[in-house]
């Protein structure tokens, strides 16, 4: 697949397009399945100002949005973080969650245990490698799913009541990470209603009702409900890349 994600932010006066290639992952391939490049234009005349590493920006902005959702939706006194998946997004989520929150325990599970062990060995801080997704999830207060799964890997029967889930993988209308029980028995938040109803298999196939967009919670027009079991379905929005690219460009410009 080749994805094109253009956006203009009037508030920031910045115009970008992200180009994303997504290839089925070949075993032991040194090349990532997702690769991205961001083009930043001058909004006054359309000239190209910069080419930025879209893969790094995508990893960091996705984790940043999950962190915002977690800050708003996680239960008070959350102690256990669980990450399902051990790819690029697992690392970016771990980094920002370790920076912003104080979890007493972090657990990880991955289909390939070697990748989970490598993750635990390479991050700063203790991480417990679990032999099954159920073991990792049981009792966790915050769960992050960043897998390449096409069928559910997280089941409602395992999830602690009141937990918060950031569902980041399964970005196709026929792919799933979460089962129907979890989707239907949680309060569902999304980054974009329109995108979720077109692109998220978790939302489409479960028939779960969307309670709010994350932006509505930030604006105060919808409540966060951290006392409930909550799911934030993250698909990513072009404007997130646009704002992040401007941060990077302005920082670089200031140093030059």
Automatic annotation (TrEMBL):
GO terms for cellular component: cytoplasm. GO terms for biological process: thyroid hormone metabolic process. Gene3D superfamilies: NAD(P)-binding Rossmann-like Domain, ornithine cyclodeaminase, domain 1. Transmembrane segments: none annotated. It comes from the Eukaryota. Its EC number is 1.5.1.1, 1.5.1.25. InterPro entries: NAD(P)-bd_dom_sf, ODC_Mu_crystall, ODC_N. It holds the Pfam family OCD_Mu_crystall. GO terms for molecular function: pyrroline-2-carboxylate reductase activity; thiomorpholine-carboxylate dehydrogenase activity; thyroid hormone binding. It catalyses: (3R)-1,4-thiomorpholine-3-carboxylate + NADP(+) = 3,4-dehydrothiomorpholine-3-carboxylate + NADPH + 2 H(+); L-proline + NAD(+) = 1-pyrroline-2-carboxylate + NADH + H(+); (R)-lanthionine ketimine + NADPH + 2 H(+) = (3R,5R)-1,4-thiomorpholine-3,5-dicarboxylate + NADP(+); L-pipecolate + NAD(+) = Delta(1)-piperideine-2-carboxylate + NADH + H(+). PANTHER family: KETIMINE REDUCTASE MU-CRYSTALLIN. Homodimer. Binds the thyroid hormone triiodothyronine (T3); T3 binding inhibits enzymatic activity. Belongs to the ornithine cyclodeaminase/mu-crystallin family. This is Ketimine reductase mu-crystallin. It comes from Pterocles gutturalis.
């Amino acid at each position: 697949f080749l994805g094109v994600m253009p956006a203009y932010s009037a508030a920031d006066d910045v115009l970008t397009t992200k180009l994303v290639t997504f290839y089925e992952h070949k075993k032991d391939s040194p090349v990532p399945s997702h690769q991205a490049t961001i083009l930043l234009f001058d909004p006054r005349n359309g000239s190209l100002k910069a080419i930025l590493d879209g893969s790094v920006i995508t990893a960091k902005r996705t984790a940043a949005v999950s962190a915002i959702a977690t800050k708003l939706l996680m239960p008070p006194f959350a102690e256990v973080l669980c990450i399902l998946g051990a790819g690029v997004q697992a690392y970016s989520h771990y980094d920002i969650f370790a920076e912003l929150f104080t979890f007493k325990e972090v657990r990880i599970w991955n289909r390939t245990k070697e990748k989970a062990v490598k993750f635990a060995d390479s991050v700063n801080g203790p991480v417990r490698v679990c032999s099954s997704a159920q073991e990792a999830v049981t009792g966790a207060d915050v769960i992050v799913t960043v897998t390449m799964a096409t069928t559910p890997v997280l089941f409602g029967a395992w999830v602690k009541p009141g937990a918060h889930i950031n569902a980041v993988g399964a970005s196709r209308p026929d792919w799933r990470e979460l089962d129907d029980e979890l989707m239907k028995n949680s309060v569902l938040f999304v980054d974009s209603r329109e995108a979720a109803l077109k692109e998220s298999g978790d939302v489409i196939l479960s028939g779960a009702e969307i309670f709010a967009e994350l932006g509505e919670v930030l604006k105060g027009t919808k409540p966060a409900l951290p006392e409930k079991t909550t799911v934030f379905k993250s698909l990513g929005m072009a404007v997130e890349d646009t704002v992040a690219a401007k941060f990077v460009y302005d920082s670089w410009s200031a140093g030059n």
